[in-house]
Amino acid sequence: MRVCFQLQVRPELIDEYVERHRAVWPKMLRAIEASGRRNYSLFLRPDGLLIGYYEVADDEAAQRSLAANPDTAEWEAEAAKYFVTLDGARPDQAAPRLREVFNLEDQLAAL
């Protein structure tokens, strides 16, 4: 399963957000890996639009794994300040998912 999501980084905190992601906590990296997420990337526009992408066998199971991990909770609590209104929700749980409308490999496989 491919998952894409978007968030809006506060413009005044973009540089700090980028710096924070230069060296993500090793325990956070291991938690993401243990959840089953792979090929995980974040892309950031100059205006703060953040697009995330990852692949996972079972996204609901990955979400539960990350939600139950105290290291993830700590990271997300600190990360919440970077984002425009999430109504108090954790960024990893509140990010709106984007609908996939095209995938080259899927269409080639269908030929």
What does it look like?
The protein is of the alpha+beta class and 111 residues long. The chain has six helices and four strands; from the N terminus they run βααββαααβα. The protein has a single domain, classed as Alpha-Beta Plaits (2-Layer Sandwich). It is 43% helix and 21% strand. Strands 2-3-1-4 form a four-stranded antiparallel beta sheet, with no helix packed on it.
* Distance between the amino and carboxyl termini: 20 Å
Helix fraction, binned, reads: 40-55%
Tell me, briefly, the overall form. globular
Number of domains: 1
How many strand units? 4
* Order of SSEs: EHHEEHHHEH
What is the CATH topology?
A: Alpha-Beta Plaits
**Uncertain regions: pLDDT < 50 for 5+ in a row?**
none
Mean pLDDT: 92
* Radius of gyration, whole Å: 15 Å
Order of adjacent strands in the largest pleated sheet: 2-3-1-4
The biggest sheet, with number of strands, parallel, antiparallel or mixed sense and barrel status, is: 4 strands, antiparallel
Our estimate of the beta-strand percent is: 15-25%
Which structural class should the secondary elements be placed in? alpha+beta
Question: Which CATH first-tier class would you pick?
Answer: Alpha Beta
